[in-house]
Amino acid sequence: MARLVIVSNRVPDPDETSGPRAGGLAVGVAEALTPGTLWFGWSGRRAEKTTALPRCIEAKGLTYATIDLGEAEYRAFYLGFSNGTLWPLFHMMPSLTVFDREEYVIYREVNQAFAAALLPLLRPDDMIWIHDYQLLGVAAALRELGVTNRIGFFLHIPFPAPALFEILPPAAELLDNMLAHDVIGFQTARDREHFLTSLRALPGSHIAADGLISHNGRHAVSVVTPIGIDADAFSALAIRAARHVATKRMIESLAGRALMIGVDRLDYTKGLPARFDAYSRFLSTHPEHRRQISFLQVAAPSREEVERYRALREELNYKTGEINGAYSDFDWVPLRYMARPVSRTLIAGFYRTARIGLVTPLRDGMNLVAKEYVAAQNPTDPGVLVLSRFAGAAAGLPEALLVNPFDIDAVAEAIGTALVMPLDERQGRHAALLARVREESAAAYCRAFTARLAEGNSVHGH
Ligand code: ADQ
Asked: Which CATH number does the domain housing residue 56 bear?
């Protein structure tokens, strides 16, 4: 068996196993971490200069190899081109997208630095699996250094519609870089189609009827491998959590009211202001339900050094005050808003308690919260998932109440529908959803992707 080398922007700290960490990648790739796996990437630490020699730590049978980013690289590569350009553009928000040529130059340099630091750790038969939008250029840099190993890439976020992708000044170069991989993976068929349509306009590229991509004498395949969770483990966690004193306190505090829950990183793609507006609309148009519901939104701050994220935080503080000011009673608060990460155990218990899971991103690669919410439910008395059509998860979860998150009235109506949905309908929808979440699991994702990566030599030699 070839050794698997995972490359991602952030490598989790192996000591930090129990603390809350908000982010989907680590949840999804956990299943691929078989003994011997090497996980390479950024430590999350900043130094004066980007380090050239990785620091290696052995823990639980895995090797974690990390480098630190220089302050200037952190600003230009991470905050700048990755999170100020690619993140909003790939989520199809061109008005939030800024482009700075110098930041892109540094993005490319950091990708090259990743490749150079990884090179000495590589063995000839390693399979390399690179993750996400921060590292689009690492494979191309590895090829430049003479690496001929199998290299795969998985994009966790959406691939934008071609009319948006072409806005990006280095669009052609980034596509070209992506073709340095042997396998290129996407969350949904739509993302892959967007990619292939952009690719058709790239001079010198050819897509055969069987999907094999040829470009400059190299070959690649594109695959759709949706990420998932370990549903049974999460269900077990939720059952344990339901007995936890914190969950009991939560239930007591509801005084018989239905709980609605939202759990997100504090990110403008997650549609939180529109979600708060929809809840406010629901309260104003359904006075009969006002005191029957309590909405808990947990939002873990992230990327706080990006101005747009700070502005979002202020906007949500303001909207929370507005909603609670308008509708609270002396013994009822309609919106509980926690702007911090919460442990997975508590979250699992809250999901299980919640009659409604409200997951309304404006765009999302997949969204694992939707899957966690389904897995956490009690099948005999399950809650209802209200899910954005524009989350990748919607493609695989058609029995959720699917909504357009831009349509405030429609989301408000879906909250009302979920709140009064009869038990048999809840059970029927939940059973179907749970079957899908168990099938499209983290294990299935890792298996499907690594199998394509391992098998590809035949495709490679076409
Ligand atoms: P994220 O945008 O981070 O991931 P998501 O898939 O929803 O989004 O995963 C978030 C994870 O963090 C979940 O496991 C959730 O429980 C946890 N989390 C979120 N907020 C939290 C909080 N306040 N406290 C504690 N935990 C919290 C990116 C893409 C997604 C894609 C994943 C995986 O943006 O579209 O689904 O990668 O590919």
From this structure: 3.40.50.2000
Show the CA angle centred on residue 23, arms to residues 19 and 28, nearest 5°: 100
Other CB atoms within a 10 A radius of the CB of residue 178 amount to 24
User: Residue 432 half-sphere exposure, CB side, CA atoms within 13 Å?
Assistant: 13
> 129 with 260, same domain?
no
Q: Active-site residue 364, yes or no?
A: yes
- Please give the helix or strand (H or E) that residue 176 lies within, else none: helix 171-178
Q: What is the largest CA-CA distance in the chain?
A: 71
> Which tens digits make up the pLDDT trace of 164-210?
999 999 999 999 999 999 999 999 999 999 999 999 999 999 999 88
Residues with CB under 6 A from ligand 1: 20, 22-25, 27-28, 156-157, 227, 263-265, 298-300, 341-342, 347, 364-369, 372
**217 lies in the same domain as 245:** no
Nearest residue (by CA) to ligand 1, atom 26, is: 22
Q: What span, in angstroms and rounded, lies between the C-alpha atoms of 274 and 266?
A: 13
Pairing of strands 213-215, 218-224: antiparallel
Q: Is 28 a member of any domain?
A: yes
* Residue 462: CB atoms within 10 Å: 11
Kindly report, residue by residue over 111-164, the tens digit of the pLDDT: 999 999 999 999 999 999 999 999 999 999 999 999 999 999 999 999 999 999
Task: Answer yes or no: is 462 within a domain.
Answer: no
Q: Are 15 and 78 in contact (CB under 8 A)?
A: no
**Residues of the domain holding 432:** 231-439
Indicate if 75 and 181 belong to the same structural domain: yes
